[in-house]
Hints:
The chain is an alpha/beta fold. It contains 13 helices and 10 strands. It starts with a strand and ends with a helix.
Amino acid sequence: MTKKKIIIDCDPGYDDAVALLLAAGNPDIEVLAITTVAGNQTIEKVTKNALRIAKLCGMENVPVAMGASRPLLRDQVVVAANIHGESGLDGTTLPEADFKVDPRHAAQMIIDIVMSEPEKTVTLVPIGPLTNIALAARMEPRIVERIKEVVLMGGGYHIGNIRPMAEFNIENDPEAAHIVFEEKWKIVMVGLDLTYQALATDEVKARIAEMKTPVGQFLTDVLTQFSMTYKKSKGFDEPPVHDPCAVAYVIDPDCIEVRQAPVHVEYRGMYTNGMTVTDLRKKAPEDCHTFVATKLNHKRFWQLIEDAVKNMENK
Length: 315
């Protein structure tokens, strides 16, 4: 079976870390690159986290490139230290990476890889703000027709978390999100409506805690800390693990139900800035290029993650 080629654009972050573990440990996935964007923490911190996670997962040969440190038009990135801590991965232990960041900007690396790989073979998996993806599409418009699909974690068709109707990744850089959603590549929006179903239950955490391996211990630390901060900040008894849902969809689309629907990003509203406006009133037109995730197979999702951890330890 031909492996599915992906580029992960991320801002690690607890749930980004789980997404990277899932991709690294799944035999059907080939990670072509990891690119970083400021979001959950500053660009310097999330890039350091990405390098160290790559080291833990045996992805030393996967290039890592640093991307945008701020949104396209806005003055400041509001980091999520209340959720992810001052380091972005507080309460966890990772090895120091003995390899360096690629000198290219993340957007340029995305362009270079997409233009060098066969057409329709590369999937973009952005799980942070969409600044790098928007930059790449503007710098080299030809990548839009070459990309297989964009499977992103962000948005929501009837719920938000930073604003009443705006999710963190989209609200962080709504202009970039507007650019990405208006391009005519296939987009699968794995938003809060879906990811709030991806709960790290006590049963899940107990199974993972039994994996007495470095990767298993790291994942246990991630879920333990994420549970504590999410409970304190959001009131959730069990934390939703957002970002790996996008990777899970690439691995096994049957794990997540999706619905074709037009989606547009609001970037000028006083109360709706960052809203992913989704039209679910009727059947989408045949040329609609956007899809929204609606239902998660919770058991299958966590099985993919647990299998990935076991696979890494068996390499």
